[in-house]
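Researcher: I'd like a candidate sequence for this fold, 191 residues long. If you have to choose between options at a position, lean toward the conservative one.
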């Protein structure tokens, strides 16, 4: 099942045990683990970019395993890369392997899309090129001042484009817009 999912979404998928040890990972997950900016394999299992995120991940895994076989728990955590610029949602779902009866957790992370891909997606969602550029920079996690500088805009102009983008995307805040763009990018095949 794990590899069928991989063919349908552009995501990194890992199967882990109750000790957060990686049992299986697709190619995208192997790439993320080898980069080590978001997740890496440590002596005690998966380790996130910072201690708080690692503790949150382990708590979610622990709660999933303690819920019993009948409990269906899903968690979504927002992880930051070591640089602090990437904000990637990771979904944790309980799964029982049919052949062995072993309870596992499936972690699914969208492949971090590049800026151009996000801009293209935002334009297809009805944003102007300027609004799409601003939305993509917000999704990258830059401060308004830094993002405006990158876009070559005044901060006030940047904020105006951001408000228009959020309105067109029918979201209430910038983090909701960033999450929507990230998940939409994972559901599409690569451009």
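Model: Candidate sequence:
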């Amino acid at each position: 099942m794990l590899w069928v999912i991989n063919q349908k979404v552009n995501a990194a998928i890992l199967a882990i045990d109750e000790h957060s040890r990686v049992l299986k990972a697709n190619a995208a997950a192997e790439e993320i683990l080898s980069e080590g900016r978001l997740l890496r394999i440590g002596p005690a299992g998966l380790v996130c970019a910072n201690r708080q995120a690692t503790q949150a991940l382990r708590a979610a895994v622990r709660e999933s395993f303690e819920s019993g076989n009948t409990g269906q728990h899903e968690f979504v955590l927002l992880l930051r890369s070591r640089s602090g610029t990437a904000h990637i949602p990771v979904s944790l779902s309980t799964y029982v392997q049919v052949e062995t009866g072993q309870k596992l957790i499936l972690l699914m992370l969208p492949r971090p899309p590049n800026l151009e891909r996000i801009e293209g997606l935002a334009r297809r969602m009805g944003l102007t090129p300027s609004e799409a550029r601003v939305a993509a920079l917000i999704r990258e996690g830059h401060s308004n001042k830094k993002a405006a500088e990158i876009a070559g805009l005044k901060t006030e102009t940047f904020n105006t484009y951001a408000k228009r983008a959020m309105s067109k995307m029918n979201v209430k805040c910038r983090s909701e817009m960033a999450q929507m763009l990230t998940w939409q990018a994972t559901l599409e095949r690569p451009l």
